[in-house]
Design brief:
Mean pLDDT: 95
Oligomer: single chain
Low-confidence stretches: none
Number of strands: 11
Number of helices: 0
Structural class: mainly beta
Radius of gyration: 14 Å
Largest sheet: 7 strands, mixed
Helix content: under 10%
Distance between the termini: 40 Å
Shape: elongated
Length: 120
């Protein structure tokens, strides 16, 4: 079992910046991809950015050039730096990972989410 705990979030003015952090804890063999989704009211959950352990980083077109994802494997953590924020970035941001629970089992895990509100 993996627990993901996000920190950061809150209210920011348009054009501002904000950083989110997420740390994974619990019992697992390894972590594969770690990343971030977001979900606005009435909309589907959207993949924003993800970093596999091996492979290319993905950044959604809607945030490319404004959001940066980074990862600290030693700390089982993933970060999202957001700049030039727009009102349409307002959403609940959820941390996600794929973890190897057993030799043969990989599972998706989600954090509880943190609210990001971009408003003047």
């Amino acid at each position: 079992q993996v627990q993901l705990v996000e920190s950061g979030g809150g209210l920011v003015q348009p054009g501002g910046s904000m950083s989110l952090s997420c740390v994974a804890s619990g019992t697992f063999i390894s972590l594969d991809a770690m990343g971030w989704y977001r979900q606005a009211p009435g909309e589907e959950r959207e993949l924003i950015a993800t970093m596999p352990t091996g492979g290319d980083t993905y950044i959604a077109d809607s945030v490319k050039g404004r959001f940066t994802i980074s990862r600290d494997n030693a700390k089982n953590s993933v970060y999202l730096q957001m700049k030039s924020l727009k009102p349409e970035d307002t959403a609940v941001y959820l941390c996600h990972c794929i973890a190897q629970d057993t030799v043969k089992t990989w599972r998706n895990y989600w954090g509880q989410g943190t609210q990001v509100t971009v408003s003047s």
